[in-house]
From TrEMBL:
GO cellular component: PAM complex, Tim23 associated import motor
Single GO biological process annotation from the record: protein import into mitochondrial matrix
Family (UniProt): Belongs to the GrpE family.
A single GO molecular function term of this UniProt record: protein homodimerization activity
Pfam families on file: GrpE (PF01025)
Residue span of region Disordered: 33-56
The protein's name in its UniProt record: GrpE-like protein
Length: 200
């Protein structure tokens, strides 16, 4: 109870101190000024009486024409704005497609150039006689192992970019995958008998 009384006294002291800065007469006079100013504003903003005056009809017609002109101009600008947004979006989509195509074609040309390297590596590993790969020729053995590892890594890179190893030997000729170097007649199904290069 004593604590509540102390709090009330503190609040009373704060109110008294604030009244020193804002005396009651100043507050009341400012309130009176605000109410008289509000009354003056309401009197000033009253619309003029509507009558059969020709000048007011002329003003209304002019305003209606102006409204129609502005709404047409607004519609035109809104249409131009929407078209500009659509053009910007189309341009963005075209650029994204061109960038992705450039990446694909860049990788494609690189992989095509690396196919010759893969062919040379495979021929190099095939040309080494297996009998020579022993302890008597450690340099040849390490060179062969290095070539095999390099070829394996190159094949992994090809797989990563979607190139797959295709061995067309003894398969039916498919022009979508195979390239004919010369023509030879067969009695049975057309099969690929000679394969110089492994295809990817």
């Amino acid at each position: 109870m004593a604590l509540q009384i102390r709090n009330l006294l503190k609040c009373g002291n704060l109110i008294n101190e604030s009244m020193k800065f804002f005396p009651r007469s100043i507050v009341m006079s400012s309130l009176r000024k605000n109410t008289t100013a509000d009354e003056g504003k309401t009197q000033e903003t009253k619309p003029p009486p509507v009558g059969g005056d020709k000048s007011s009809d002329f003003d209304i017609d002019n305003l209606n024409k102006k409204i129609v002109e502005l709404s047409e101009k607004n519609d035109e600008l809104l249409d131009k704005y929407k078209r500009a947004l659509a053009d910007g979006e189309n341009l963005r989509q075209r650029l994204v497609k061109q960038i992705s195509d450039a990446k694909i074609f860049g990788v494609q040309s690189l992989c095509k150039d690396l196919l010759d390297v893969a062919d040379v590596l495979s021929k190099a590993t095939e040309s080494v006689p297996k009998e020579e790969l022993n302890e008597k020729n450690p340099h040849l053995k390490s060179l062969y192992e290095g070539l095999v590892v390099t070829e394996a890594q190159l094949k992994n890179v090809f797989k990563r970019y979607g190139l797959e190893h295709v061995n067309p030997l003894n398969e039916k000729f498919d022009p979508n995958y195979h390239e004919a170097l010369f023509q030879q007649s067969f009695e049975d199904d057309q099969q690929i008998n000679n394969n110089n290069n492994i295809l990817y």
